[in-house]
What we know:
Blueprint: E1 10-16, E2 19-24, E3 28-31, E4 36-38, E5 57-63, E6 66-71, E7 78-81, E8 87-89, E9 100-106, E10 109-114, E11 122-126, E12 132-135, E13 147-152, E14 158-162, E15 165-169
Antiparallel strand pairs: 1-2, 2-3, 3-4, 5-6, 6-7, 7-8, 9-10, 10-11, 11-12, 13-14, 14-15
Amino acid sequence: xxxxxxxxxxxxxxxxxxxxxxxxxxxxxxxxxxxxxxxxxxxxxxxxxxxxxxxxxxxxxxxxxxxxxxxxxxxxxxxxxxxxxxxxxxxxxxxxxxxxxxxxxxxxxxxxxxxxxxxxxxxxxxxxxxxxxxxxxxxxxxxxxxxxxxxxxxxxxxxxxxxxxxxxxxx
Length: 171
């Protein structure tokens, strides 16, 4: 089936129950099953638009009966959405707008990759304790803030690709 819609610039896709959700770099979320676009104007929404009024959802993932997402260009970018139209945000202990571009789940930790042209580095959020850990060149946890990619292998090890080489964190 060919997908046609004015919902474009797709960044990610996730299966949530019987529904398929798409995220967009400019239009928020789209529930393919219902045809509903969810953005900053939607009921109860915690999504924050960019100054040009676009809603950038860089990545989405279904975990623990919630649709998790990162809202690029927000002070509270880590959000969850539930089918009953309830939203939650998760405090990342930052006092400025941040620009997350990707995240990976590893057990109860969310590894959040930040836009390298806007400070870069990685934020780790512990779902169980709400603790936040920052990885950066400044605190000696990264060799550079220019992080290009992140992945988790089958053993739970985290691999970080940077402009200056590969970094490995064992599980």
